[in-house]
Structure formats: C-alpha cells, structure tokens
Amino acid sequence: MNPGIELKPCPFCGGEAKAILGYPLRLDEYGEEVGDYEPATIWFGARVYCPKCECVIEKKKRCVNGSPKGWHDQIKRDAVEAWNRRANDV
Ligand SMILES: [Zn+2]
To answer: Which domain holds residue 48?
Structure first.
C-alpha cells in the first residue's frame, strides 16, 4: 500500500481494506463506460475495497488539460477519505 495513506478496516466485516489508486479509465465525457471503438476521454480512478465481502468505493476524475497540479493525488485522497468516512459511520 502507498505510504502515508491510512485505511480503516471494512465497515461491514472488519476485514483489511485494500486500495488501487490512480488507474486510467476510458469513459465518455460524462463518466459512462464506452465500447472499444467509441471515442473516449481519459479519466483516472481510485478504488478502495474489501477483499472479504467485496464492498467497494470508487472515485473517478476526468483528466483535463489545465487541471491543477496534484489532481491525480486528489483522486486518491478522495477515495481513501470516502472509505474512511463510511468506516466511521458504522
Ligand atoms: Zn468487508
């Protein structure tokens, strides 16, 4: 796991959470999936999941020219924070 990112245990089963952060996605401009031969824009996704009960939180963000530096890190933080927030709620 990436250093400096702390994940709370799964809110449902208490299992250890895993993170996949910053992978490219091919989606249309609204963030919907597209087929292999359709035009697509590049998004980046970040996902935190529990391998035990398969609950997932995924965040995605469109890669746009002129995006502020650090947006790539932001998507990671968004996913981790969303996960940790939900872990808090239970
Ligand atoms: Zn779980």
So the answer is: 18-84
Q: What is the pTM of this model?
A: 0.78
Number of domains in the chain: 1
Length of the chain: 90
Per-chain residues with Cβ under 5 A from ion ligand 1:
10, 12-13, 15, 50, 52-53
Residues facing residue 61 across a β-bridge: 44
What's the gap in Å between 49 CA and the centre of ligand 1? 8
Residue 87 has a pLDDT of 80
Q: Quick one: pLDDT band at residue 4, thresholds 50, 70, 90? A: low
| 13 found inside a domain | no
